[in-house]
């Protein structure tokens, strides 16, 4: 996608240039390479949970983002996982078997 946009910019396509500047929020900006454009447009987030997310998986997510020149953020969402688990136990009234499995997580 970014390569196609860059081709249009090199061909002096005024509409594409205006669209790019509108999307990135900078009326004066013109990327010099597709990687620069991808870095502005694409953002990836790896949301991992301790004990469930391996370092290999985190590394793959980071490498994939690097491959397409995307901005990448890695974060732990342990507190969100715990909150969801607690809400499930409190409000969904799971069966004893499911409650035991959720509690062990």
UniProtKB/TrEMBL annotation:
Coiled coil: none annotated. The keyword Transmembrane helix does not apply. One of its GO terms (cellular component) is cytoplasm. GO terms for molecular function: glutaminase activity; NAD+ synthase (glutamine-hydrolyzing) activity. Keywords: Ligase. GO terms for biological process: NAD+ biosynthetic process. InterPro entries: NAD_synthase, Rossmann-like_a/b/a_fold. Transmembrane segments: none annotated. The keyword Ligase applies. This is Uncharacterized protein. The lineage of its organism: Eukaryota, Fungi, Dikarya, Ascomycota, Pezizomycotina.
């Amino acid at each position: 996608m970014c390569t196609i946009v860059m081709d249009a910019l090199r061909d002096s396509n005024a509409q594409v240039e205006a669209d790019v500047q509108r999307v990135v929020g900078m009326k004066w900006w013109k990327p010099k390479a597709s990687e620069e454009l991808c870095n502005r447009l694409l953002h990836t987030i790896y949301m991992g949970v301790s004990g469930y997310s391996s370092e290999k998986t985190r590394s793959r997510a980071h490498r994939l983002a690097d491959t397409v020149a995307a901005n990448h953020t890695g974060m732990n969402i342990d507190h969100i996982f715990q909150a969801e688990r607690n809400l499930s136990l409190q409000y969904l009234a799971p069966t004893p078997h499911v409650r035991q499995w959720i509690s062990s997580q």
